[in-house]
Structure formats: structure tokens, C-alpha cells
């Protein structure tokens, strides 16, 4: 199989590519390098391009005789999506449509899509199962849900089969310490705490401690990026063998508050982390915890890094060995 990975040079994408290397598949990464890093995908076939460039997409599909797509290229920040919705509708929906149209025109039948827990909004019950109501509280989640609706219609009309993977909070780094999380600016909780541990930042701001949770801070379900990556391969294999679309949650099934995550970083790194409570971040739901029973049962997915401690240990290995990230 020839697989096109959009956003393959990004944080999650590069870990997906790492897991694909060594399988029977050929991998082609398509990335505009706005957030991705060339060094994260050393030795992999690479096309530098943006999904808004339909011509380049068509050319790439043909040149590499693409059979399947793993689509991760997107903007993914809750806060930014509320301040600049135009960017999110344009990049996540319009540019994504170019990809789907190119797939239709080039007879590419399978797509694994990186969706998000943000499609659920404030969930009706915890842990969240795939049949929970979808009612996003932020623009980011809304764009991902819109794309899921488009996928459903493209399946009905054009026979494109999809797997939508609704990620909870991707975290950690490859066990080798060779690839990991490097955003600029960094907005995610764990890498920001790492920056405090490394002395690159004075303190971490806790976005709200007046939520209806055990310690008042938001609760999230952190899933190791390699476990997440492996789910993409299982999803692709299932598409090829069963030719059937599906939607799966991906999380660890356990929630940790912002304070608990900070405490765990202190434990793993041995550094003390200065913290200060600031206001809530718009669009943040109080609690997001996944039920991943469906993917465990149906696809045999099995997380290896099943504790927050293990996840943070791998993150610390990456950040402490690469304090400036990929340093391009
Ligand atoms: N968070 C925080 N301070 C920060 C960054 C994040 O308190 O500097 C909180 C955020 O409000 C959320 C959790 O940490 O409840 C995880 O946020 P992140 O941005 O890592 O992921 P998201 O949940 O938005 O996908």
C-alpha cells in the first residue's frame, strides 16, 4: 500500500510515520512545514505543500500511486480557534475538502482522519462513548465535526471509506527520545510544564480552578502519542480488510486534573514547578475522559503507555535531551 500522510511532519503525524516505517507500506508525507519539522521525518519521501494546493495534491496522488490517506494536517488549538475562526474553517474544512476531492478524482478509497474529543463539547456522561451527543463548545471541535459529516456524505455518494479517530489529549514522545512535541508558540499543558522544569519559563498558568471537578481544574484524558499512532495502523488495516467506515475514541480512560499533571511532572523530573491560577480559557470543557472500549474490542488496540507517569517520563526524555526542540 502507498500511504499519503498529510501533516506527517507534525507532532502526532511524525509518530504515525515512525510506526508505519517497517510495515509493508510505502509512506509519503505531505506537509507545509508551518508547524511540522523536516527533521521529524528523516529518510521519508516528502512533499512540501499545502492542502489548499489542489494541483499539487492531484500530482502527488498520481506520482506515488496513493492507495490510502492518513489525514492529520490541521490547525488544532482551542483558544486560537475562538479568536480566529476564519483560519480554522478555511484550513480544516475547505483545505480538507480539496484532499477529499482529489481522492475522489484519483480513485483513492480509504482515509483515516484525525478527529478530536472536542466534537463532544460538554459530555452528557463520563466516560464518553462514541454515541455521546456531539455539540462542540469551540470552533476547533466544530471544524472536525463538520469534516466528519462531509466524510459520511462522501462515503454515501463516492464510496470513500473512512475511520474517524477522536483523540483525547495526545502526550509524551517516542520512547527513543528522537522525536517529540515541538510547537512554536507552545500552548499545550505538558510541554509548557516541561519548559518550566527546564527553566525556560518562570511558571505555569492554570486556566481556571473554579470548574466543577475534584480540585477545580480541568480534567483531561492523556494518551501516549505512540499508542495513538498505532491505532492509525489498526484503523487502516481494518479499512482495507472490511471496507467499512467507523468512528473510534482514543484515550486511556482515566482523567487527570491540571494540578495532578503538574504534580506528576514534579515527581518525574525532580524539579519544583511554580504555578499560578489565571482565568478560564474560552471553549474549555470541564471534563473529558474517553471510553476506548470500542476500539479495544473491535480492532484489538492495546495501549502500552497506560499511566500518566510513563507518558510524562517519555516527554521528559525528549524535552530534556532536546531543550530547543528540533532547533531549526
Ligand atoms: N492548560 C492550563 N495551562 C496552560 C495550558 C493548558 O491550565 O498553560 C489546561 C487547559 O485549560 C486544559 C488542559 O490544560 O484544561 C489541557 O490543555 P491542552 O491545551 O494541553 O489540550 P486541550 O485539552 O486544549 O486539547
UniProtKB/TrEMBL annotation:
NCBIfam families: galE. Residues 3-251 form the NAD-dependent epimerase/dehydratase domain. InterPro entries: Epimerase_deHydtase, NAD(P)-bd_dom_sf, UDP_G4E. It catalyses: UDP-alpha-D-glucose = UDP-alpha-D-galactose. It comes from the Bacteria. The keyword Cell membrane does not apply. GO terms for biological process: galactose catabolic process via UDP-galactose, Leloir pathway. This is UDP-glucose 4-epimerase. CDD domains: UDP_G4E_1_SDR_e. Pathway: Carbohydrate metabolism; galactose metabolism. Its cofactor is NAD(+). It comes from Caloranaerobacter azorensis DSM 13643. Its EC number is 5.1.3.2. Homodimer. GO terms for molecular function: UDP-glucose 4-epimerase activity. Keywords: Carbohydrate metabolism, Galactose metabolism, Isomerase, NAD. Belongs to the NAD(P)-dependent epimerase/dehydratase family.
Amino acid at each position: 500500500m502507498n500511504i499519503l500522510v498529510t501533516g506527517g511532519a507534525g507532532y502526532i503525524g511524525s509518530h504515525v510515520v515512525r510506526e508505519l516505517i517497517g510495515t509493508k507500506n510505502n509512506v509519503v508525507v505531505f506537509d507545509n512545514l508551518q508547524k511540522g519539522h523536516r527533521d521529524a521525518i528523516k529518510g521519508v519521501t516528502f512533499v512540501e505543500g499545502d492542502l489548499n494546493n489542489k494541483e499539487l495534491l492531484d500530482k502527488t496522488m498520481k506520482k506515488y500511486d496513493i492507495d490510502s490517506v492518513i489525514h492529520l494536517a490541521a490547525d488544532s488549538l482551542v483558544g486560537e480557534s475562538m479568536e480566529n475562526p476564519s483560519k480554522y474553517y478555511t484550513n480544516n474544512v475547505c483545505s480538507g475538502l480539496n484532499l477529499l476531492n482529489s481522492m475522489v478524482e484519483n480513485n483513492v478509497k480509504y482515509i483515516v482522519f484525525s478527529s478530536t474529543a472536542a466534537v463532544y463539547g460538554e459530555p452528557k456522561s463520563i466516560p464518553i462513548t462514541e454515541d455521546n451527543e456531539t455539540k462542540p463548545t469551540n470552533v476547533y471541535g466544530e471544524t472536525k465535526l463538520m469534516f466528519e459529516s462531509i466524510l459520511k456524505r462522501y462515503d454515501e455518494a463516492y464510496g470513500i471509506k473512512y475511520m474517524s479517530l477522536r483523540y483525547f489529549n495526545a502526550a509524551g514522545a517516542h520512547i527513543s527520545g528522537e522525536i517529540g512535541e515541538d510547537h512554536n508558540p507552545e500552548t499545550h499543558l505538558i510541554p509548557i510544564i516541561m519548559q518550566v522544569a527546564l527553566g525556560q519559563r518562570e511558571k505555569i498558568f492554570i486556566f481556571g480552578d473554579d470548574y466543577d471537578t475534584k480540585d477545580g481544574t480541568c480534567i483531561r484524558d492523556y494518551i501516549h502519542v505512540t499508542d495513538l499512532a498505532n491505532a492509525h495502523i489498526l484503523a487502516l488495516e481494518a479499512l482495507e480488510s472490511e471496507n467499512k467506515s467507523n468512528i473510534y475514541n482514543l484515550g486511556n480512560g482515566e482523567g487527570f486534573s491540571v494540578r495532578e499533571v503538574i504534580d506528576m511532572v514534579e515527581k518525574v523530573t525532580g524539579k519544583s514547578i511554580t504555578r499560578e491560577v489565571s482565568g478560564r480559557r474560552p471553549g474549555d470543557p470541564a471534563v473529558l475522559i474517553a471510553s476506548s472500549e470500542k476500539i479495544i474490542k473491535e480492532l484489538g488496540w492495546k495501549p502500552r503507555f497506560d499511566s500518566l507517569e510513563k507518558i510524562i517520563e517519555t516527554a521528559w526524555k525528549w524535552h530534556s535531551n532536546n531543550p530547543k526542540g528540533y532547533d531549526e
